[in-house]
Amino acid sequence: MKYLAIDIGGTNVKFGLLDAKGKILERAEIEVPLSKETSSSDFLDVVLKFVYPYEKQIEGVAISMPGIIDSESGYCLSAGAIHCLAEVNVVQLIKKHINLPVTVQNDGKCAVLAEHWIGNLRGYKNSAVVLLGTGIGGGLIINGELYNGHNFAAGEMSFMLFNASEKEFGFWAGKNSTTALVRKVSEKTDIPLSKLNGRKVFELIEEGNEFALTVLEEFCEDLASQLYSLQSLLDLEMFAIGGGISKQPKLMEILQKKIDYYNDNHPMESYMSFIPKPKVITCKFYNDSNLIGAVYHHLKLTSKHTKIKDM
Question: pTM above the 0.85 mark?
């Protein structure tokens, strides 16, 4: 059996043809900027462009996209940068044009589902994915199951407050997104923002740029402190860090040092033996995680009584 997964981003749309074990058989990506002017009809055209060529050979369509989504009904309470889909039932929109099961899930939740199913979080009953990108996405596995939250908003880590006050609202995405890292390096090095991205920041560090290294040190301090807070609240077995910059060994090296420092110097040290420090690894699938997780969600939702296959 084959399934078509579609990962809707703000500027790119990816698709993958997958089997029931999560193996990607075909994949492609196209640039499709979705702006405030984009309509739901424009979105539908993009989806159907991918679906129609495969309609006769697939068992269903699994969609990953940003937003707060009722993943059981397909209704989008919000849709991130894809404004046209806010307060739209995406499943109903698509099923008017195809006679196949359709499911939709938040992209951060798809990522954690992929890692939980056949990735680096497999075997952990309580874990999380933290995705460093334009914002901070994520998802939680609690007692072996995806945790949606009361309003399907669990894992929207971008909005967590960070050193907020009445004078200024600090939030986590403003500190630890890749966007924030690149912006801060641009400010410190006087390199135009248009000439920087996450990969180029790490190239500067490898070249010995002290300003860029200092920014990364501060970035990892903030990231470690928030992971510590999440660990204290949730007592997880493992965090998997995702997003493009998580492929950089320097990020994970410095992050681990900051976590160790907080653990060794915590003012409540007499309790630290009872509160394990955060354990961090990288995600396995990176850019493919949303496709794989979308299919896993599809299988869970459409075949609740059928055992999902492992790799």
Answer: yes
